[in-house]
């Protein structure tokens, strides 16, 4: 039995690289690579070259991917010989759907266990067959209609004055149903909208509300860091992000910098939060005041990386005194015994500032003109020699 500690590697194919002129060449396989590595949230099957023990049947569940990274797990009841990249027809609540097999074998068992999906669940659907050419033609024709439908659907919602946004449309593989994904701040009564959709598009309509983070994950984009959005590439679970995450990391509460493309706080604010919380365990709470004979001192600033804290006396807010976290804890411990220290200056004087540079400029790293060719100095002629030449008579004699 394989453990859950197996690493799932991400990879990309060579056909999606850039050309000689630096322009992206695009996917030459149109997203249907044999290793399915052009798609987001793709898992590389690191066990594909390993054979099972004698008599051990292969795991009969297949991971199938649909539009925008939506994945489901289907039971291979017909024991079809499937590999990554095969287009399959799967069971749906009504009719059938068409998707691409993205993972087979024992890694599917690991993924289902990680996502807490039971093998014998009543909701488990099955794979019918490998998709025929007719299935693929109907599927591709329906996918081509989605963009034009989305423009019309948004206009219908505006005409009905509904506070909602149609973010995406996904057709079922047999073109018998269209799922409209939308976002809204409040509850929306879209019964009249469904009637308009059914009359215009002549298909069954399903409305599904998603969050703003899920919308950004489906649409994708480039973040302020210059990379693709985490939610659309590798992030699978969306945890709540609060302003306390920014406060722990001492970030300015600027909504323009802390908000992502979804309009919510960036998911990356939680990445280093645990490290900051562990580092702050050695620091005293900032709301604790230091009692000295000179006056009461209040914390003004904390530097987690250097391990320093700045305090100022009440009434003397412009004069800050820098202490280490250990010194602040020592003063707090003395105050807990109903004693006061003389002043903060005697502790602040113990801090020795290191004024030594971290590096020395020996090869001109910070010179902006180090690659420019040196200019030649022009020779200046003496004024006396110029006047002397002017005074000499010209000899025209031959």
Characterize the structure shown.
With 398 residues, the chain is α+β, with helices and mostly antiparallel strands. The chain has four domains: 14-129, no CATH class; 137-210, 2-Layer Sandwich (GMP Synthetase, Chain A, domain 3); 216-279, no CATH class; 283-348, no CATH class. The chain has eleven helices and twelve strands. It has helices at residues 106-114, 133-159, 191-201, 212-219, 230-233, 243-248, 255-258, 273-279, 325-336, 345-348, 383-391, and strands spanning 61-65, 71-75, 87-91, 96-103, 125-130, 165-171, 177-183, 204-209, 290-291, 296-303, 308-313, 321-324. Helix 2 packs across helix 3 (191-201). The longest helix has 27 residues, at 133-159. It starts with 60 loop residues before the first strand and ends in a 7-residue tail after the last helix.
Secondary-structure map with pairings?
Blueprint (H helix, E strand, L loop, with lengths): L60 E5 L5 E5 L11 E5 L4 E8 L2 H9 L10 E6 L2 H27 L5 E7 L5 E7 L7 H11 L2 E6 L2 H8 L10 H4 L9 H6 L6 H4 L14 H7 L10 E2 L4 E8 L4 E6 L7 E4 H12 L8 H4 L34 H9 L7
Parallel strand pairs: 2-5, 7-8
Antiparallel strand pairs: 1-2, 1-4, 3-4, 3-5, 6-7, 9-10, 10-11, 11-12
Helix pairs in contact: 2-3
């Amino acid at each position: 039995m394989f453990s859950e500690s197996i690493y799932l590697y991400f990879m990309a194919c060579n056909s999606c690289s850039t050309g000689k002129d630096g322009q992206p060449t695009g996917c030459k396989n149109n997203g249907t690579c044999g290793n399915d590595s052009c798609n987001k949230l793709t898992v590389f099957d690191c066990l594909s070259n390993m054979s099972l023990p004698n008599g051990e049947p292969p795991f009969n569940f297949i991971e199938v991917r649909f539009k925008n990274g939506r994945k489901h797990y289907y039971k291979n009841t017909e024991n079809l010989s499937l590999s990554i990249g095969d287009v399959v027809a799967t069971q749906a609540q009504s009719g059938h759907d068409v998707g691409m097999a993205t993972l087979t074998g024992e890694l599917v068992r690991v993924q289902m266990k990680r996502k807490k999906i039971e093998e014998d669940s009543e909701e488990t659907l099955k794979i019918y067959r490998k998709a025929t050419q007719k299935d693929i033609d109907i599927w591709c024709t329906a996918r081509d209609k989605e963009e034009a439908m989305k423009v019309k659907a948004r206009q219908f919602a505006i005409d009905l004055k509904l506070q909602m946004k149609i973010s995406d449309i996904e057709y079922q593989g047999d073109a018998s149903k269209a799922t409209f994904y939308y976002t809204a701040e409040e509850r929306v009564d879209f019964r009249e909208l469904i009637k308009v959709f059914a009359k215009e598009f002549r298909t069954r309509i399903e409305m599904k509300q998603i969050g703003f983070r899920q919308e950004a994950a489906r649409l994708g984009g480039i973040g302020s860091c210059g990379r693709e959005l985490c939610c659309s590439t590798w992030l699978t679970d969306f945890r709540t992000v609060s302003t306390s995450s920014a406060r722990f990391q001492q970030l300015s509460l600027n909504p323009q910098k802390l908000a992502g493309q979804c309009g919510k706080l960036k998911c990356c604010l939680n990445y280093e939060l645990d490290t900051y919380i562990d580092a702050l365990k050695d620091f005293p709470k900032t709301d604790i005041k230091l009692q000295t004979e000179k006056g009461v001192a209040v914390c003004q600033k904390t530097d987690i990386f250097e391990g320093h804290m700045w305090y100022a006396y009440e009434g003397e807010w412009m004069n800050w005194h820098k202490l280490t976290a250990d010194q602040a804890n020592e003063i707090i411990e003395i105050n807990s015994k109903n004693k006061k220290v003389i002043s903060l200056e005697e502790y602040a004087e113990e801090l020795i500032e290191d004024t030594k540079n971290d590096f020395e400029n020996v090869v001109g790293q910070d010179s902006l003109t180090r690659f420019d060719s040196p200019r030649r100095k022009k020779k200046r002629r003496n004024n006396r020699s110029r006047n002397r030449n002017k005074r000499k008579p010209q000899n025209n004699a031959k």
